[in-house]
Automatic annotation (TrEMBL):
InterPro entries cross-referenced by the UniProt entry: HAD-like_sf, HAD_sf
Residues making up the signal peptide according to the UniProt record: 1-21
Gene3D superfamilies per record: HAD superfamily/HAD-like
Protein name (Swiss-Prot/TrEMBL): HAD family hydrolase
Pfam families noted in UniProt: HAD (PF12710)
Alphabetical UniProt keywords: Hydrolase, Signal
Species of origin: Teichococcus globiformis
Entry keyword annotation includes Oxidoreductase: no
GO molecular function, one term: hydrolase activity
Length: 336
């Protein structure tokens, strides 16, 4: 090896040595502490107490493995919610598809999406956003949509953090998912987001297989094209909104058991937490409170996205844990 190259290699090794050392320390911490990103306190202890109670044989609260089911909201609970990744995906898809639909340039809410007119988009409300989602998610097979979503996730960047959305999962919640799985739990995602979008990354990011993802859906039809192969085809008709009271309905429909633990962050998760924690035996509910403007975003009662108002009022009487990002988490993302 030439001296200059040898020197460059040496400098490179010196530059990455602190990173490797930090990674080694973190890996060591995870082997000795299942929740190293959670600070000591009431929230962390409530998780550990619940797990000890339901997994210890002989405990009056012991729960057999088949009944150990936990459900998690996605946006704002497992990864960043502001801005919502799927909304950004929809807006990018409108721009990508616009050349095929010239009328969009003069038709709302497509015109606002193309021009970045956030005020008009906000005024369009849920109906307008649903219209955009239907137009940009339909006319594909699930396999085709998976490729589109996966390619977008590989290149899209969060406007504040300038990192991939899949890098902005919450490290404390990833640790919690792993701890539950190692304790015999099956983890499900129950999200208001589109099910096919979340299935594009749930396995690789959360270690949750696509069959354990429940979300909002558009109508899917079985087709057997002439001379082709049988396929499922997604059409621009809303099928089911998996939010609010829809979440318990979806849990009953697709899981068939009442979970014993539920994790959310907004009033859209309220009915899910109520349903899960009102069952018999030991139960657990947790709300992630976004109160860390420095490391993420601070929002709750007045937010247009991820509003947490009634949930904060009901948490105490319902004995739900409210986990403060600012006070309970010593680490926000896997890569700081």
């Amino acid at each position: 090896m030439m001296p200059i190259a040898r020197r460059a290699l040496g400098l490179g090794l010196l530059s990455i040595t602190p990173i490797l050392a930090a990674g080694h320390v973190w890996a060591q911490a995870q082997r000795t502490d299942p929740l190293p990103s959670w600070r000591d306190g009431a929230s962390r202890q409530s998780i550990l107490d619940f797990l000890a109670a339901v997994t210890t044989e002989g405990s009056p609260d012991f729960v057999p493995v088949p009944q150990r089911i936990a459900v998690f909201d996605n946006d704002g609970t497992l990864w960043c919610e502001i801005p919502t990744a799927q909304l950004m995906f929809v807006l990018d898809r409108v721009k990508a598809l616009a050349p095929h639909y010239p009328a969009w340039r003069t038709t709302q809410p497509f015109k606002a999406a193309l021009e970045g007119d956030t005020a008009t988009l906000a005024a369009a409300g849920t109906h307008g956003l649903a219209e955009l989602a239907l137009a940009t998610h339909a006319n594909t097979t699930p396999e085709q949509f998976n490729v589109i979503a996966t390619e977008w996730l590989a290149t899209a960047r969060h406007p504040k953090f300038q990192r991939s959305y899949t890098e902005l999962t919450y490290q404390p919640m990833l640790e919690l998912l792993r701890l539950l799985a190692s304790s015999g739990f099956r983890n499900y995602i129950v999200s208001g987001g589109g099910v096919e979008f979340i299935r594009a990354f749930s396995d690789s990011v959360y270690d949750i297989p696509p069959e354990q993802v429940i979300g909002s859906t558009i109508r899917t039809e079985y087709r057997f094209p002439h001379g082709g192969k049988p396929e499922l085809f997604r059409v621009a008709v809303m099928d089911f909104i998996d939010d609010g009271p829809g979440k318990p309905v979806a849990i009953g429909k697709f899981i068939g058991r009442r979970p014993i633990a539920a994790f959310g962050n907004s009033d859209g998760d309220l009915e899910m937490l109520q349903y899960v924690t009102s069952g018999p035996g030991r139960r657990f509910g947790l709300l992630v409170h976004h109160d860390d403007a420095e490391r993420e975003v601070a929002y709750d009662r007045q937010s247009p996205f991820g509003k947490l108002d009634r949930g904060l009022d009901l948490a105490g009487p319902s004995r739900w844990t409210v986990a403060s990002m600012r006070q309970d988490w010593n680490r926000m993302f896997p890569v700081q």
